[in-house]
Every structure is written in C-alpha cells, then in structure tokens.
Amino acid sequence: MGRIRLLPEIVASQVAAGEVVERPASVVKELIENSLDAGAEKIDIIIRRGGISLVRVIDDGCGMDRDDALLSLERHATSKIRSAADLQAVATLGFRGEALPSIASVSRFRLTTRETDAIAGTEIIINGGKLEVARDGGEAPGTQVEVRSLFYNLPARRKFLRSENTESRNIEHQIHLQAIGHPQIAFSLLRDDRVLFRLPSAATLGDRIRDLYGTELLERLVEVNSTPSRKSRISGFIGQAGLSRQTKAQQLIFVNGRAIESSLITAAVREGYHTALMKGQYPVTFLFLELDPATVDVNVHPAKREVRFRDPNGVREEIVRCIQETLQGRRAEWQEKFRAPISSQATVAGKAAPDLMLRPGVSVPEESHRALPHLTPEATYHVIAGVTRARAVVPGESVQPDKPPGRAPAKRDSNQHQFNIIGVLSKLYVLMENADGLVLVDQHAAHERILFEELRRRMEEYGVPTQKLLLPQTFDVPPRDADWIERNLSILQKMGIGIESFGPDTFKIDSVPSFLNVSDPAQFMRKVIDDLKSAGNSASAMRLGEEMIAKSVCRHAVKANDPLRYPEVEKLIRDLLDCDLPYCCPHGRPTMIQISLAELEKKFGRKV
C-alpha cells in the first residue's frame, strides 16, 4: 500500500528531458527545427565550451506574443498539431511540444521573442524548470533562445558529456545537416567568439554543398535523375562510382526535409550502387525523399531521428531504381568524353576480320583467358581506321595508326571528344589523351568489368547452371524467414535454387547453382535470405553468382605486366565504354581516372 506515487513535475520534466536532450547538439537541433517551423530565413548559432556553457539560437521567424511564449514552455503545448488525426500526416519538423520545457528543466534558460508588428516583445527566464521572470523585452523581431549551464542540476548526466571539442564537432555536424536540408536558409556559427562559417541563402542544393564541402567534392557528385511519381519524388546528389568513405558520415538522407537515420534506406542505397561500391565502403549521398506525410510515421523516436514507412518495399525499390538509373545515365556522357574514332573492319590476306566480342556458349578456359584474344601476326581483328597489323604499345610512345598506301589521313572532327592512345605505363595503366587532358585506364580493372557484364548477361539469358544434390535436404527457418521464402520462391528458383515448401516453416532444397560450393544448405539459405532481403523484389537472377563471377573474371582478366598490342588496347577501351557501369570494376575500384589540363598546369606552376 502506498508504494506508487506521482512524480513531482520537475522530476518528470527531467526524466522526459533525458529522451529529448542527450547532449548540446540535441539542444541545437531542437531549437533550429523550431526556428525553421517559425518561417525563419536566417538562423545564427552561438556556442561556448562546446555548448555546455552556452547555446544561443537567434532567428528572424514569426515570433510569439506573451501568452504563446509562456504556453510554449508547458509540456505538450504545440502549434503544430491539434488532434490525434494530425499525427497521421505530420508536415512540420517539430510536433510533440516537449523540446522547450525539457531544455528549460535542465539548464538556465532565457527566451526572448517578438512578433513582426509588435511594439514590444517578451522575455522569459527559467532556472532548472522554475519560472523566475516574465516581462517585456526589446529584442528584434523573431525569437532568441539562450541555454546556459546545461545539466547544471543533473551532475550525473553532465559527467557523460564528451570533451568540448567533441561536443563542438557534434554541434557543427548537426548544423551541417540542417543547412543541407534547407539550403534556402542562411546559417552562421560562432564558437567561443570565433566565426566558424557564415552560409548565405543558397539558390540550389549544389551551391550549399559547395559552400560546406568545397568544389572538389561537388565535382565528383552526380545529380539524381528521378522521374517523380504520384507517391514520391527523389532528388539530390550521389557520389560517382568510385567515390566512397569508410564511414556513413557523409551519407545524408532527408525525408520531407527531416534528416533521418534509416537502415532500410541505407541498404537500398548500397543495393543501388551494388558492384559500383567497394566492399566495406559507404557511398557519399545527399538524398532527398519527398513523400506524402500520410505515408510516413515520424512519431517513432523521441529525437525524431527514425521514421517508419507505410510501404517500405515501395520506398526501397524506388531508391534502388533511382540510383541505378543515375549511375547508368552517366554512361552516355562517358562515351562522348572518351569515344575513340569510329573503327573500320580491316582485312588481312583478303579475309574479313572476325568479331572479337564474346558469344553466348563460348566457354571460359581455366587457364589464362582473354576476351580480347592474344593477337598474332596472322590474326585478323577489328581495328581503327588505317591499322592493318598489330604492334606492341611501347610505354611513352605515341601510337598512331599505320597509314595505308594511297589514302590521305582522316581528319579529326574537332567538335567531338575523342582520345589518342599515348602508351602503357608499367604494363598496367593505359595512357590516353582526350579533349579534357590525360586519362589513365587500369587495364586489369577495365577487363574485369567487361568480362563480368558479359558473363553475367550470358547466364541471365541462357539460365543459371544448377547441380542436383545427391540427397535432398530439409531445413527449418523462423516464421518471418519462412514467410519471406514463400513470397520469393520464384526469385530463388531463377537463381538456380531448387526449393519448395515441406511443411510449416520447413523447406526442402534439392539443387543449388553449380558454381557455388554448398556444404550446409541450411546455413547457405540463411545467408541467401540475409543477402537478398536488402536487394528487394528486383533482384537479378544472377545475384547469388555475382560474387563468384567477380572472382572468376579477376583470374581471367589481363594482369599487370601483360603486354597488350595496340588493337587490343583500342578494343579494350571501346568494350569498356559499352558496359552498363564502365566507371568501376566489379569490386568497386575505378577503371578510369581523368587528370584535367588545369590540374597539370597547376602541377607545373603554370596556374596558381
């Protein structure tokens, strides 16, 4: 009897503050979101000692009158929603009405606000959740919130804060997120009386990225090309194939202007890059999703970092498709940039040159294999205009086609971007010159990409070879995995897995792809499920074999120190540019590197 009591209001506020206010960066985030919801066009942030001593956020938003200012400091008081039905379509960044009272309960808090046409404003001072002063103020129109001595009344919580530098970096990261999410808003940050940055209002997202991260990063980003649908619109920038980071620090995702963390979207982004991303690396993304607010539940995390989608599979598929189309859409640009002169079909001894492309049904030898055949003096080939015999490319030598007798040299169209093969460096890197400068091609990575796409296409068209198990085996899976297998039986069968239901949560497997070494079917299927869940319903029928294909083509592709003759090099480049993703090998390493004339001029001191 009498063991359960109501907590005092101050204690309850401090408990609630533990969910919303984790560190000074949380304070900055909540205050900036309030400023954005108030229609601010300029937001200034001032911090001292990593925000532990002082956080001040000043905006030029709509401001509040005295009644609203006092009411805003009551728990669950908000102007953003009116009823439970409004929670189903939240269109603002804040909506719970917990941020200001939670912050005020664990700090020395001062709020000054004034409406645009008001003669006087309002000043409110609160210490540790206790109201001390409410009076007229003379600040400029807008709202200013000052938070001093954060967690001064919760010493145990204050001990968990990191160093001042760490807390300052967290605040700076949070401001970067808000600045990227709202490029039309001007931001400034003053740390310990030193200006860290002033960001003017930006006309485009690209301008804001350039202001924050520099021109060099912006030049390596690709604008997302997405056709808006009735349900969603995807925009922003993603990194080129080959641009990646070791952490997710620059993988920024926004849903309806809100920066979020979503394992579903992270997996979809990775699936979109697929073989264009090195293992263990994360892409650079500034991805914006605009969805109907009714299809997104933002009321699932106290700090609103996570959201829940009504149609998660649809969102995932849309992101995967958008990223794949964006990366593949750059192929035309690359082809125009590096396109070789149109080749003609040469003849030797009166015989037409055979097609060097791989044909379906051609087996891959176990020994050293070249999709570009080893050329001999007796061989015939597709070569560029004027080349009638093969010769080795000498490093440093400018390779030009032999001039056929009685024919004037062909004139190059100066309006087309074409390349000259200069030579081969260290028997590995093909050096070329195009209109923009110097191009280096990794012959091994390029050949890997060519073989990978050719073999993958061949197996998708002609089927995945399967191997029957000597004894069919049954295995049990958890109910969720069983439901997933039931819904994706057709995909698994296309991938060469002979599987069928054998009772509740039990399946029988009687065949597997022949190129996989499966000793434990149950463990194999668990890995398949984990790998394919993030791939979505559009998974390729060769998804299971891609890793094996990548390893196989790595063995068969031309290696470093493998000498290539001129026609081989020229055909290698042409075949690479015809690939779906010519920018990288199946392991995600770049195949081509462009060094611009401007960069070379800087190296030689011709430009500053």
Textual characterization of the structure:
This protein is an alpha+beta fold. The protein has four domains: 9-204, Histidine kinase-like ATPase, C-terminal domain (Heat Shock Protein 90); 220-329, 2-Layer Sandwich (Ribosomal Protein S5, domain 2); 338-404 and 416-451 and 556-603, 2-Layer Sandwich (formyl-coa transferase, domain 3), CATH 3.30.1540; 464-540, Ribosomal Protein S8, Chain: A, domain 1 (2-Layer Sandwich), CATH 3.30.1370. It contains 18 helices and 28 strands. The strands form eight sheets. The protein has an eight-stranded mixed beta sheet with strand order 5-4-3-6-2-1-7-8. A five-stranded mixed beta sheet has the order 9-10-15-12-13, sandwiched between helices. It has a four-stranded antiparallel beta sheet with strand order 22-23-24-28. It is globular, with a radius of gyration of 31 Å. The N and C termini lie far apart (82 Å).
What key attributes describe this structure?
32% helix; 4 domains; 24% strand; formyl-coa transferase, domain 3; 18 helices; Ribosomal Protein S5, domain 2; 8-stranded mixed sheet; 608 residues; Heat Shock Protein 90
